[in-house]
Design a protein that fits this description.
- By secondary structure, the protein is an alpha/beta fold.
- Helix content is 47%, strand content 16%.
- An 11-stranded mixed beta sheet has the order 3-2-1-4-11-10-5-6-9-7-8, with helices on both faces.
- The protein is globular, with a radius of gyration of 20 Å.
- The protein starts with a strand and ends with a helix.
Length: 329
């Protein structure tokens, strides 16, 4: 059995949505156990009514608007803090939370701990491509400022993720920049390019913004500032297109009929771009798998995130990253 700790507090959604997702995950994976973390009135009845679950009762929650580091230090009984401590203590093999990104990152980094030699964990997504294959994209927002050597570590971690989760034997790594030419980019981007070229990490050159969804590369690396801006731009574009399609269907009966026929396909595309299919972003570089869901997560995303966390634990992703990064030093 693989046990995943699920923090059902702290997100923008009611705990009932996260618990519904846990139920779905348990139904899909008979080898899964879940440690649900949160208020007693929320988690204890759920644990009594569901096999392969147990409750970890907490009394605090870290809100989206709180300073992550201060809140993690002061709120020792907050759900995300206790959840990370439970993983470190061996009570669970991984962690899923849809709470504040900063709080999850801080609590997991200090509570679970980094893999030896890893400077910083990185938020990582497997994003869809027009070719049908996914691209591992990191960092998506955990580290705004990154030293070139740290970006090389991101590349190695992204390769390990691509190998374990996506089954890509020899991942091709690219640097997100403003042009494909080696000479393009800011002074810092050029430093990144130089470090990656010397980093023995499968680096093949620069990627542009339109490569994110093209499936051209297996791994695309970036500092967290640039990566988060790029990701939000993609998400915003997807929402714009969906809203325009919806608005267009009201203009004529034929358009409405066409939209009805396309509805399943549009839902599938929306799910891929929203991250529901993978459940959220993975924090790579920690001693145990941690999946961070959207604050406005859905039950489907919670289920997929919990299952993805379990697959990462069974695939010994963290051990693989540790081995890859140790070899790269």
């Amino acid at each position: 059995m693989t046990t995943i700790c699920v923090d059902v507090m702290g997100s923008d959604r009611e705990p009932s949505v996260l618990l519904e997702g846990v139920s779905m995950a348990l139904e899909r994976d008979p080898e899964l156990k879940v440690l649900v973390v949160g208020d007693a009135v929320v988690v204890e009845p759920f644990a009594r009514d569901h096999e392969r679950t147990s409750a970890l009762v907490t009394t605090g929650v870290i809100g989206m608007d709180e300073h992550p580091a201060n809140a993690v230090r002061k709120k020792k009984d907050a759900s995300i803090v206790r959840a990370a401590a439970a993983v470190r203590a061996g009570e669970a093999d991984g962690l899923f939370s849809a709470g504040s990104t900063g709080a999850v990152l801080t609590a997991a980094t200090f509570g679970i701990g980094r893999i030896k030699g890893i400077r910083r964990p990185a938020l990582t997504l497997a994003i869809p491509g027009v070719t049908g294959k996914k691209t591992v994209f990191l960092d998506c927002g955990a580290n705004a400022d990154v030293h070139p050597d740290t970006l090389v570590q991101f590349a190695h971690m992204g390769c390990a993720y691509a190998q374990v989760v996506l089954g890509i034997e020899e991942p091709r790594v690219a640097l997100l920049s403003n042009g494909s030419e080696d000479t393009k980019g800011s002074g810092l981007a050029l430093q990144y390019h130089q470090a990656l070229s010397e980093g023995n990490c499968g680096f093949v050159g620069n990627a542009e913004g339109n490569d994110l969804l093209a499936g051209t590369f297996d791994v695309i690396v970036s500092d967290g500032f640039t990566g988060n801006v790029a990701l939000k731009a993609v998400e915003g574009t997807a929402k714009f297109i969906m809203s325009r399609v919806k608005a267009a269907t009201g203009n004529s009966k034929s358009a409405a009929l066409g939209a009805l026929m396309l509805k399943p396909a549009l839902r599938s595309v929306a799910g891929e771009l929203s991250g529901d299919e993978m459940g959220g972003a993975v924090l790579l570089g920690l001693r145990a798998p941690v999946v961070k869901g959207h604050g406005s997560t859905s039950a489907e995303a919670v289920a997929n995130g919990t299952l993805a966390c379990a697959r990462a634990a069974r695939g010994r992703l963290c051990e693989r990253i540790a081995k890859v990064c140790e070899t790269a030093e």
